[in-house]
TrEMBL record:
Stored SUPFAM superfamilies: PRTase-like
Family: Belongs to the purine/pyrimidine phosphoribosyltransferase family.
Keywords from the UniProt entry: Cytoplasm, Glycosyltransferase, Purine salvage, Transferase
InterPro entries in the record: Adenine_PRTase (IPR050120), PRTase-like (IPR029057), PRTase_dom (IPR000836)
Residues of the Phosphoribosyltransferase domain: 74-206
Protein name (record): adenine phosphoribosyltransferase
């Protein structure tokens, strides 16, 4: 189905970032009255590892609420988070993992499934090779006993850049007989891969349309 974002929700809700109230950053991205966290914390930083998750509990709740709003009333049986930042939107452990996907699962009162890079699951798995945003060849795995035919799964990740990682997750779910109920990410770039996903699946993200070109070009303003 066509890419879809609910007007008035993820397309218009704004979060405070540098550039507001005398700080540096993307111009005009005003603070939400509901939350206080920096979307820039979720921006991939090349060569610097993963960004830290947001520190504001209210901000995390607002982010998850925005991502899930388009799926309210939809049939969803499970939420799957993609290794590793896809875990960062539920229950944080000491390593700040298993928390966007797990938070979304908790909000929906559904189970959480981790889709992991190869070698981390000590059970029988299905594997899918893919190229990540940097062009590196990798392999993604999911346990074979977690997805039954017809199970409707919401896929969650931090960022869809080239779309290779998310597409591999989609292929794993569908190969095992599951149904992709939707795709949610903080940002979905309008790359060839990102468009492919949005044209075929119901999608949700947190970037307002007028700022999408800045995110597509990685012109965030806080570098």
């Amino acid at each position: 189905m066509p890419g879809w974002t609910l007007p008035g929700s993820t397309a218009t809700r704004k979060y405070p970032v540098p550039g507001v109230d005398g700080t540096r950053g993307v111009p005009g991205w005003a603070a939400s009255p509901r939350g206080c966290w920096g979307t820039q914390l979720w921006v991939p930083v090349v060569g610097c590892g993963h960004p830290a998750p947001p520190l504001s509990p209210q901000g995390l709740q607002d982010c998850v609420a925005d991502l899930l709003q388009p799926f309210q009333g939809d049939a969803i049986d499970m939420v799957a988070g993609i290794d590793a930042m896809g875990f960062i939107l539920g229950e944080q452990d000491a390593a700040h993992r298993r928390a966007q996907g797990a938070a979304a699962a908790a909000a929906l009162r559904k189970g959480f499934l981790a889709i992991r890079k190869a070698g981390h699951l000590c059970v029988q798995t299905a594997a899918q090779p893919y190229s990540d945003y940097s062009g590196r060849e990798k392999v993604m795995e999911v346990r074979t006993d977690a997805i039954s035919p017809g199970l409707r799964i919401l896929l969650v990740d931090q960022w869809v850049e080239t779309g290779g990682t998310m597409r591999a997750a989609i292929e794993l779910v569908e190969r095992l007989g599951g149904v992709v109920a939707g795709v949610a990410a903080i940002c979905m770039e309008n790359s060839e891969g990102g468009k492919w996903i949005q044209e075929r699946y119901k999608c949700s993200h947190c970037v307002p349309p007028r700022l999408q070109p800045l995110f597509d070009q990685h012109h965030f303003g806080w570098n």
